[in-house]
Structures are given as C-alpha cells and as structure tokens.
Amino acid sequence: MSKLFEPAQLKQLDLQNRVVMAPMTRARTSQPGNIPNPMMATYYQQRATAGLIISEATQISDESQGYSFTPGVYTDEHVAGWKTVTQAAKQRGAAMFCQLWHVGRVSHPSFQNGEQPIAPSALKPVETQVWIADENGNGNMVDCVEPRAMSQADIDRVVSDFAYAAKRAIEAGFDGVEIHGGNGYLIDQFLRTNSNHRTDHYGGTRQNRMRFLLEVVDAVSDAIGADKVGVRLAPFITFKDMNCPDIVPTILQASKELQARDIAYLHLSEADWDDAPVIPESFRLELREYFTNTIIVAGSYTQDRADEILEKGYADLVAFGRPFVANPDLVSRLKHQQPLQQLDGATLFGGDERGYTDYPEYG
Ligand SMILES: Cc1cc2nc3c(=O)[nH]c(=O)nc-3n(C[C@H](O)[C@H](O)[C@H](O)COP(=O)(O)O)c2cc1C
C-alpha cells in the first residue's frame, strides 16, 4: 500500500494518514467581521478524512487583510466561529492547523481605512491584484498600490499580532498554526531582495532578510510552543512580482534556523496555478539535510508523485489543494484509484454552498 495512507506523527499529534489538505482561500465568511460560519464547518468536515487540514489563510489583525471575506482569528467572534469548524474536523479524525497571514503590500487602502498598506519597503508590486467585493458579494480584481515602509514600531506590532492570533487559534481548537511565509505576502516580502530594500537590520544580508520571519516564529513559539508551529515557504515561486535571485539560498539558510527552533514542520509551496517550476533534486537533498523535522510539500501532486517523494524521504506529508476542492473524499478516491472530479473555477472565491459544499462523494 502507498505510504500516503499510513499514519504519521507530527510532534505529539497522531495523523490518520499522510494526506494534507493545503490551505485554500475560499472567501466565504459571514459579514460583518469576516467570521467563520457553519457552512465553512461543513466544508472542512467533508474533507476531514485527511490526516491534517491547514485552514485557508487567516488574518491576524484588521490591517493584515488583502482580499474580501477572508477570515480572521483575533476577535471573540472569530474564535467562536472557528471552534465549530475545528470540532467538525476533529470528529472525523483530522488534525487542523490555522494558517496565519499578513498580506503586507498585497492589499488595498479599502482594507486599511484609506491608508497605504505596509511592507518592508515602499515598492508597489507590479501586475499584482487583490479581490475586493461589495456587501452583495460582487467583486473585482483591483491593482495593489504603493505601500508604506514599515517602521520598527510597525514590525514590533505585527510580530505581537502574530503571537496574539496564535493564542486565539489554540483557544479556537486548532492543533497548531502555520505561519504563512510564502506566496508573496508580508514575510516573503521581507525574505526577498526585490521587495526588501531596507538598509536597517531587516534588509540586505540573508540573515537580515530572514530576521522578521524568525522574530515571528520566536514570538509565536513563545506563545503556544514550537511543537505547534509550522512555517510555509515558497522557494521557487515568482508570481506577485516576487522574482528574487537569492531566495533559494535564503530559504535554505532559514531552514537551518527553523530546525534549530525545533518547529513542527516546514511546508513548501511549490506551485501556484501554472507557476509550477520543476524543483531540482539537489535542493530537496540539501533541505532534507538541514531540516529533519516534518516536511510537507504541495503543488500539483498526484498519487504517483506523492509516492515517489515519500519513498525518497524528501517529504513526510503531501498536501493537495485543487483536488480537495472538487473531491471532498479525496483520500478515499486516491486509495481506491477512483476518478477525480474537476473543480469549477467560477465558484472558488465568495458565494454560497454552490461549488463549495455541494461536490458529491464518489458514487
Ligand atoms: C482556490 C485556492 C486558494 C488558495 N489559497 C491559499 C491560501 O490561502 N494560502 C496558501 O498558502 N496557499 C493558497 N493556495 C495555494 C495552495 O495551498 C496550493 O499550494 C496550490 O493550490 C498548489 O497545490 P495543488 O496543485 O494541489 O492545487 C490556494 C490555491 C487555490 C487553488
């Protein structure tokens, strides 16, 4: 039998298999306040035969938002909403982590009380847009604007917002949190030379560019324990104006720091839609050498690719994104080699249960 269906250990957690549901924004919270709701609980419960579910990216504060209707995890209402979700997932055996998110410059003044979004440097991301909807759910893609460079006070505030949100996530019943350090959002913006032109100790050298990431990891670990912390990084992705020639060595160096902190896992975001570069074997070997705790991979995985990477030992768990949208019973379909349904791209973001909780199980 494929290793994918074997149980696994993630620090103190027992996972029922090695299939992970990748974090996926679906923009279906209740308004006002971006509150998780019973429809979301149904959606996650339907997919909770996975070993681990990573929630959709979730705001840590008002200012960390960049898209309409994405959830938060910092108010009492958020915590109450998420409790229903985490309980529903647990009933079917899945562990669940909350992906903590600050978008940085991938935002818009309409989420910032009319002010500029914040980022490491005042550099507008080219060809980068966010989705903004009115209260009826009718939305448009809108260009990002030039952000304001963060002061030390901004940095300190965001670090403590991450720690606060992590505590609230645990209170909401999550087994841990995943710090979103990839896909062109705030932490990634610090890591890369193209978006970080700072001249203080957060910019320039690799050690400086990873400082913000490590401050967040340390603050979150102090708040909830490093054994409940995962980090997502995207070494080969270049979308959202994130083409940085030094990102791969930066991430390899960061992986040693993360291992030293003994976090639960490192999660590689390997593909975004069609931006799915082939990852050299040398990178996987080097990463495995530096990071010996759990590695999760995500990006266009199939059963065959999953088996291969698990067999080689380059990863311990494999995350599936798009296949989980249209196949709530993905684990069973993979196990029994049943055909997969295709997702409907028109119902991914916002809307109701259509294209969300109405995808049928096999047969
Ligand atoms: C609808 C959708 C929403 C996504 N939202 C997030 C997100 O909130 N956080 C994140 O880290 N990645 C997000 N991703 C990326 C996925 O986690 C995953 O890395 C990507 O879809 C590649 O995996 P796949 O080929 O199995 O779909 C999203 C992907 C999709 C399709």
Separation, N- and C-terminal Cα atoms: 23 Å
Shape: globular
H/E series: EEEHEEHEEEEEHEHHHEHEHEHEHH
Poorly predicted residue ranges: none
Question: Strand order of the main beta sheet, please?
Answer: 3-4-6-11-12-13-14-15
The strand count comes to: 15
Number of helices: 11
Strand content: 15-25%
- Main beta-sheet annotation: 8 strands, parallel, barrel
CATH top level label = Alpha Beta
Q: State the helicity in percent bands.
A: 25-40%
Q: Which compounds are bound in this model?
A: flavin mononucleotide
CATH-assigned fold name: TIM Barrel
Number of domains: 1
Radius of gyration: 19 Å
**What is the residue-averaged pLDDT?**
97
Can you identify the CATH superfamily? Aldolase class I
Q: Structural class of the helix and strand makeup? A: alpha/beta
Question: Short summary of the structure?
Answer:
Helix content is about 30%, strand content about 15%. The protein is α/β, with parallel strands linked by helices and about 375 residues long. The mean pLDDT is about 95.
What's the structural blueprint in terms of helices and strands?
Elements: E1 8-10, E2 13-15, E3 19-21, H1 38-46, E4 52-54, E5 58-59, H2 76-91, E6 95-101, E7 118-119, E8 129-133, E9 139-143, E10 148-149, H3 152-171, E11 176-180, H4 186-191, H5 206-209, H6 211-224, E12 229-233, H7 247-260, E13 265-269, H8 281-290, E14 294-298, H9 303-312, E15 317-320, H10 322-326, H11 330-335
Parallel strand pairs: 3-4, 3-15, 4-6, 5-6, 6-11, 7-10, 11-12, 12-13, 13-14, 14-15
Antiparallel strand pairs: 1-2, 8-9
The structure holds flavin mononucleotide.
Flavin mononucleotide is lined by residues 22-25, 56-57, 99, 180, 182-183, 232, 269, 271, 298-301, 320-323, 348.
